[in-house]
């Protein structure tokens, strides 16, 4: 039996989970959970990274002695270090407005189609490549000697060692998904210095030992290794999709975002795929995460914030009784990316498309959940078509598995059974990689089998109202 601390940082909260793994057992418990509250300062929206580091240390102390530590977080964002290895300012939040209008500048040097063919990444204004272009003239970048993605930065603070973990590196849009190495040509043409990045690390690689100061602060007895896991939370979550070997499945990682797609063994780099805004992020063991970003429960989180955080259970119950598919919005629309005024923005989108405007919080909530399910349906259907890979089942993992209405609507919309769980998928995927060096988990398939045997899963059957979803889809497409 071994114990692993999985640090999993999401956009709204961080947690330190402890995974206890034996030859045929896996038990996950929460040691510590803390808020991740971005802060708006005059220059823009920033991550409170020192608070997060403190949360990690508190969490490790609460976890008690473990055999190793692994860190995953959201993607694309980074900290810059000076020549002494000191952090130059707070990392910029990917929802910050600095990347507005930057893509056009990039595409003037490297056309969007060429960029897609080389990197396989969907267009999102926050891809690191656009962030670095937006920062080109900044003092900070001029002084920077090193760029570390968020989980790599926190790993560096724990161990003193620097690296760039591959699954997360693939979200920078500076990696070639065919070679799984940097896209040197693209970086050069855009004037991005790849020397800023520390050498690539593969998931499963050792990432150093906890520094003596960290041992002292956490009460651990050394040596305690840190393992590079799939440090992009979505890579870890996909590794914890409890699919059986040979099963034909799609997955949806739900949380602040919904990431919906397929696991492939090679990227799809066609023009059609680019037009459909599908991404080819890198997964564990040579896999490709072929998926689309959907706004996800962010839409609801922002409404809850605007409504003064009412009781969610009660709201979902009311929403389940509200009329279905009355109004839907495009949950893939980047117009919903920025924070603020979410109920109004949703109402405006309904008005613009000539649909009834949802009024009460329950109606707005129903509109959001219907819209998410519809976006799930489109992504699952598009992925199958674009990759030419039919599926029989949809696995839903992550925070959204707690939302039974969303899971049922997703099954209805996709016209496929949904298997929901585990909720803490990213932490479990993180643990499964840490267990590899100890011989407790061999590979992806082996880890998934262990999850199937040990984690509670809920199955939702589609209720056969396919025609209504087709009608809603046509309504959204303006047809
Ligand atoms: C989910 C996620 C998505 C990524 C977005 C921004 O937490 O990591 O995969 O596109 O956050 O980093």
TrEMBL record:
<dbReference type="Pfam" id="PF00370">
    <property type="entry name" value="FGGY_N"/>
</dbReference>
<comment type="similarity">
    <text>Belongs to the FGGY kinase family.</text>
</comment>
<dbReference type="GO" id="GO:0005524">
    <property type="term" value="F:ATP binding"/>
</dbReference>
<dbReference type="GO" id="GO:0006071">
    <property type="term" value="P:glycerol metabolic process"/>
</dbReference>
<keyword id="KW-1015">Disulfide bond</keyword>
<dbReference type="InterPro" id="IPR043129">
    <property type="entry name" value="ATPase_NBD"/>
</dbReference>
<dbReference type="InterPro" id="IPR018484">
    <property type="entry name" value="FGGY_N"/>
</dbReference>
<dbReference type="Pfam" id="PF02782">
    <property type="entry name" value="FGGY_C"/>
</dbReference>
<dbReference type="GO" id="GO:0008993">
    <property type="term" value="F:rhamnulokinase activity"/>
</dbReference>
<keyword id="KW-0808">Transferase</keyword>
<keyword id="KW-0418">Kinase</keyword>
<dbReference type="InterPro" id="IPR013449">
    <property type="entry name" value="Rhamnulokinase"/>
</dbReference>
<keyword id="KW-0684">Rhamnose metabolism</keyword>
<feature type="domain" description="Carbohydrate kinase FGGY N-terminal">
    <location>
        <begin position="65"/>
        <end position="238"/>
    </location>
</feature>
<protein>
    <submittedName>
        <fullName>Rhamnulokinase</fullName>
    </submittedName>
</protein>
<dbReference type="GO" id="GO:0019301">
    <property type="term" value="P:rhamnose catabolic process"/>
</dbReference>
<dbReference type="InterPro" id="IPR018485">
    <property type="entry name" value="FGGY_C"/>
</dbReference>
<keyword id="KW-0547">Nucleotide-binding</keyword>
<keyword id="KW-0067">ATP-binding</keyword>
<dbReference type="GO" id="GO:0005829">
    <property type="term" value="C:cytosol"/>
</dbReference>
<feature type="domain" description="Carbohydrate kinase FGGY C-terminal">
    <location>
        <begin position="250"/>
        <end position="435"/>
    </location>
</feature>
<dbReference type="GO" id="GO:0004370">
    <property type="term" value="F:glycerol kinase activity"/>
</dbReference>
């Amino acid at each position: 039996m071994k114990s692993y601390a999985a640090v999993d940082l999401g956009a709204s909260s961080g947690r330190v989970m402890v995974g206890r793994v034996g030859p045929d057992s896996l038990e996950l418990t929460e040691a510590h959970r803390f808020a991740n509250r971005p802060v708006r300062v005059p220059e823009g929206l920033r991550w409170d990274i020192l608070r997060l580091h403190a949360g990690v240390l508190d969490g490790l102390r609460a976890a008690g002695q473990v055999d190793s530590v692994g860190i995953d977080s959201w993607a694309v964002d980074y900290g810059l270090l000076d020549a002494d290895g000191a952090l130059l300012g707070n990392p910029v939040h990917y929802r910050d407005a600095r990347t507005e209008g930057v893509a056009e500048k990039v595409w003037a040097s490297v056309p969007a189609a060429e960029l897609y063919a080389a990197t396989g990444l969907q267009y999102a204004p926050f891809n690191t490549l656009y962030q670095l272009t937006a920062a080109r003239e900044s003092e900070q970048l001029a002084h920077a000697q090193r760029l570390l993605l968020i989980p790599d930065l926190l790993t560096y603070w724990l161990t003193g060692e620097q690296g760039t973990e591959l699954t997360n590196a693939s979200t920078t849009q500076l990696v070639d998904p065919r070679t799984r190495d940097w896209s040197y040509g693209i970086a050069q043409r855009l004037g991005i210095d790849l020397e800023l990045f520390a050498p690539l690390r593969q998931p499963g690689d050792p990432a150093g030992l906890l520094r003596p100061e960290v041992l002292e602060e956490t009460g651990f007895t050394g040596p305690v290794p840190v393992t590079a896991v799939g440090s992009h939370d979505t890579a870890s979550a996909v590794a914890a999709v409890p699919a059986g070997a040979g099963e034909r499945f799609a997955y949806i990682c739900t949380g602040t975002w919904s990431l919906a797609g397929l696991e492939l063994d090679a990227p799809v780099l066609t023009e059609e795929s680019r037009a459909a805004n599908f991404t080819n992020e890198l997964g564990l063991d040579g896999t490709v995460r072929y998926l689309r970003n959907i706004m996800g429960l962010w839409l609801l989180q922002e409404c809850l914030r605007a409504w003064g955080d009412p009781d969610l259970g009660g709201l979902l119950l009311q929403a389940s009784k509200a009329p279905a598919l009355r109004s839907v919005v495009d949950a893939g629309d980047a117009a919903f990316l920025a924070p603020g005024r979410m109920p109004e923005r949703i109402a405006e989108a309904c008005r613009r498309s000539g649909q009834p405007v949802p009024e009460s919080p329950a109606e707005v909530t129903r509109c959001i959940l219907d819209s998410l399910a519809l976006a799930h349906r489109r992504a699952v259907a598009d992925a199958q078509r674009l990759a030419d890979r039919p599926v029989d089942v949809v696995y839903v993992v992550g925070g959204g598995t707690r939302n039974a209405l969303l899971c049922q609507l997703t099954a209805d919309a996709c016209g496929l059974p949904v298997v929901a769980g585990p909720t803490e998928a990213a932490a479990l995927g993180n643990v499964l990689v840490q267990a590899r060096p100890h011989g407790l988990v061999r590979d992806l398939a082996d880890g998934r089998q262990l999850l199937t045997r040990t984690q509670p899963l809920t199955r939702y059957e589609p209720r056969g109202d396919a025609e209504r979803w087709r009608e809603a889809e046509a309504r959204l497409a303006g047809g």
